[in-house]
UniProtKB/TrEMBL annotation:
Gene Ontology terms describing biological process: xenobiotic detoxification by transmembrane export across the plasma membrane
Membrane topology: Multi-pass membrane protein
Transmembrane segments: 38-60, 72-90, 96-118, 130-154, 160-181, 213-235, 241-263, 275-296, 302-321, 333-352, 364-389
Pfam entry (one): MFS_1
Protein name: Bcr/CflA family efflux transporter
Entry-linked InterPro entries: Efflux_drug-R_Bcr/CmlA (IPR004812), MFS (IPR011701), MFS_dom (IPR020846), MFS_trans_sf (IPR036259), Sugar_transporter_CS (IPR005829)
Family according to the record: Belongs to the major facilitator superfamily. Bcr/CmlA family.
Lineage start: Bacteria, Pseudomonadati, Pseudomonadota, Gammaproteobacteria, Pseudomonadales
Keyword Membrane set for record: yes
Keyword list, A-Z: Cell inner membrane, Cell membrane, Membrane, Transmembrane, Transmembrane helix, Transport
Major localization listed first in the record, in broad terms: membrane
Length: 397
C-alpha cells in the first residue's frame, strides 16, 4: 500500500484524539456556566478522558496482537461515537466525566492500533518517516479543532461539538473498512494465550533503551498537556482574548509543529532519529526557560505566545522520531509496545494535568514552571540516550 495513502488514513484516524481534546476548549466557559461549575473543574473532563485514554491502551494493545488490528480499532470507534453522543446529553459534571471516560476507552483502542499498524508494515528510519508523515497529516485536526469548536458555538451550543465528534468517528469506520484494511499486507494471527499477552509487558519494561524513550515521550507529552489543559485559562481568562483569537494562537502551535515535521524528514537522511530527539527536546526546554523568565518579568503577550508556540511546536519533531525509537525493538509485539507507550504517556500526563487542575494555583507562572519541570526531566533522559538506535538483532517473541 502506498505510504501516502496509508499515512492519510492512519493520520485521520489518530486525529480523533486531538479533536476530542481540543475541539471543546473554546467552550470551557460555556460548559462552566451551563453546568454551574468553576472553569478549573471543566478541566477534569479533559483529564478524565486523557487518563482513560492511557489506561485502556493496556488492554487494547495485547488484544490487537491477539485478535487483530481491525476488530479492536472498529470496536474503539463505535464506543467513542456512543460516548460522544452521551456527553452531548450530559447535564451534570459527573455525567460528563463518566461519558468522557467511555470516550477515552474507545479512543484508546483507536490510538493503540495506529502505531501497531505502522510497525506491522515498516521499521527503522522508514517507520520514523511514516510516523512523521502521519503526524503532518494529523496536525490539521488540532489546528482546526478550536476553530471547529468556535464555529459550533456560533451556530448553536457546546453539545454540537460532541455530536460532530461522533459523526467523525462513524465516518472513519466506514473509510477504514473500504480503503485501508483490504489493502494492508496480511499479518499472521497470534495464538498466544491471554496470560502470555499480559506477561509480555515485562519484556518491554525490562528493555532499558525502550523505557528511556518511553520516559521522554511521557514527559514531553505532559508538557504539552499542561498547556492544553490550561490554554483556555491562559488566553481567555488571564489575557481576556476572544474565542477567535484563542483559536488563532492555538493553531499557531500546530503550524509550528507541522513546520518542524517537514524539516525533520530531510534531516532523517543525515542524522539518526535518536540524535534528532535529543536536539528537539533541548529546544523545547530552552523555550520554556524563556517562557518562565518572560512571565516572571511581566513580559508582553506576544512574547509569552512566542515561547509557548516554540515549546509546544517542538512536539512536531519529537513525537515521530521518539515513537520510531521506542517501537523499533518489538516487531512481533508492536501492539503491546504501543500500548505501554500510550498508556504511560496518557496516564502519567493525565495525572499531572489533574493535579494541576485540582491542587495547583491558577497562575501563569505556576503553569509555566510545571511545564518546565517536565521538560527538564525529558532533557535528562535524552542526554543519556544512545546516539543511534540500531535495529534489534534478536527477535522478541
Amino acid at each position: 500500500m502506498p505510504h501516502l495513502q496509508l499515512a492519510l488514513l492512519l493520520g485521520m484516524t489518530v486525529a480523533l484524539g486531538p479533536l476530542a481534546l481540543d475541539a471543546y476548549l473554546p467552550a470551557f466557559p460555556n460548559i462552566a456556566d451551563d453546568l454551574n461549575i468553576s472553569h478549573s473543574h471543566v478541566g477534569l473532563t479533559l483529564s478524565a478522558y486523557v487518563t482513560t485514554l492511557g489506561l485502556a491502551q493496556l488492554a487494547g494493545g495485547p488484544l490487537s496482537d491477539r485478535y487483530g488490528r481491525k476488530p479492536v480499532l472498529f470496536g474503539g470507534l463505535l464506543v467513542f461515537a456512543f460516548g460522544a453522543v452521551m456527553v452531548s446529553l450530559a447535564d451534570t459534571l459527573s455525567a460528563m466525566v463518566f461519558w468522557r471516560i467511555a470516550q477515552g476507552i474507545g479512543g484508546a483502542f483507536c490510538a493503540v492500533s495506529v502505531p501497531a499498524i505502522v510497525r506491522d508494515q515498516v521499521s527503522g528510519q522508514d517507520a520514523a518517516r511514516l510516523f512523521g508523515l502521519i503526524g503532518l497529516i494529523m496536525f490539521i485536526a488540532p489546528a482546526a479543532a478550536p476553530s471547529l469548536g468556535a464555529l459550533m458555538l456560533a451556530l448553536g451550543e457546546w453539545h454540537w461539538i460532541f455530536l460532530l465528534l461522533a459523526g467523525y468517528a462513524v465516518f472513519m469506520l466506514l473509510a477504514l473498512n473500504m480503503a485501508l484494511f483490504p489493502k494492508l499486507k496480511p499479518r499472521p494471527r497470534s495464538n498466544t494465550p491471554l496470560k502470555t499477552l499480559v506477561t509480555n509487558y515485562l519484556l518491554v519494561l525490562r528493555h532499558a533503551t525502550t523505557m528511556r524513550f518511553v520516559g521522554i515521550q511521557v514527559l514531553c507529552f505532559s508538557t504539552m498537556l499542561l498547556f492544553i489543559t490550561h490554554s483556555s485559562f491562559i488566553y481567555q481568562e488571564w489575557y481576556g482574548l476572544s474565542n477567535g483569537t484563542f483559536a488563532i494562537l492555538f493553531a499557531a502551535n500546530i503550524a509550528f509543529m507541522a513546520a518542524l515535521n517537514l524539516i525533520n524528514r530531510p534531516l532523517l537522511r543525515r542524522f539518526s532519529s535518536a540524535v534528532l530527539v535529543r536536539a528537539q527536546v533541548i529546544m523545547q526546554c530552552l523555550a520554556l526557560v524563556a517562557l518562565v523568565i518572560t512571565v516572571w518579568a511581566g513580559g508582553p503577550l506576544w512574547l509569552v505566545a512566542t515561547c509557548i508556540i516554540v515549546a509546544i511546536g517542538s512536539q512536531g519533531g519529537i513525537v515521530p522520531n521518539n515513537m520510531a525509537n521506542a517501537m523499533e525493538f518489538f516487531p512481533h509485539l508492536s501492539g503491546t509496545a504501543a500500548a505501554l507507550l500510550g498508556a504511560s504517556q496518557f496516564t502519567i500526563a493525565g495525572a499531572i494535568s489533574t493535579a494541576s487542575s485540582v491542587f495547583g494555583s491558577q497562575s501563569l507562572l505556576t503553569i509555566s514552571l510545571s511545564m518546565l519541570a517536565c521538560s527538564t526531566g525529558a532533557v535528562i533522559l535524552a542526554l543519556g540516550a544512545p546516539g543511534a538506535v540500531a535495529r534489534a538483532t534478536t527477535a522478541v517473541r
